[in-house]
Amino acid sequence: MKSQAKRSIMKIARVIRSKNSGPYELTLDIMFKDRRDYELFKKKKLITAGKIAALYGVDKSDVLKIIYFEPSQAIKITLKRKIPSGTPGDTDIYGAQQHAPLLNLKF
Fold it and tell me: Most exposed: 32, 51, 66, 101, by fewest CB within 10 Å?
């Protein structure tokens, strides 16, 4: 039996974005095109703290929340920022360019 090729999150997501959730946290959003895919991810818990930690190269404890947000068929993930927003060394004050690792998600 052949193994099924994995699909990219970019095929089923309407929006993948990031933004600050205060100066010390970052929120990642995955908004699905249709309810069926959203429900599949929710039921099978395809997004985990371990998976996000591995993508971002952080400790699992730095992934603070994974929330399924019904009204927009979205998964919202909150993690600690490595560097507080606006402090020396911060390269993305708004946290708007931090979603790129999510684009590598396969399922």
Answer: 101
Give the 3-state secondary structure of residue 37: helix
CATH class of the domain at 9-104: alpha beta
- Contact present, 77 and 51 (Cβ < 8 Å): no
Each domain of the chain, given as residue ranges in start order, spans 9-104
21 φ, ψ to 5°? Answer: -125, 60
Reduced to 3 states (helix: H, G, I; strand: E, B; else coil), residue 59 is: coil
Nearest alpha-carbon partner for 25 in 83, 105, 90: 83
pLDDT attached to residue 2:
53
d(CA 63, CA 77) in angstroms, rounded, equals 7
Q: What is the mean pLDDT of residues 94-107?
A: 94
Q: How far apart are CA 89 and CA 29, in angstroms?
A: 24
Render pLDDT for 20-72 as a digit per residue (tens, 0 to 9). 999 999 999 999 999 999 999 999 999 999 999 999 999 999 999 999 999 99
Tokens of residue 29, six digits? 């959003």
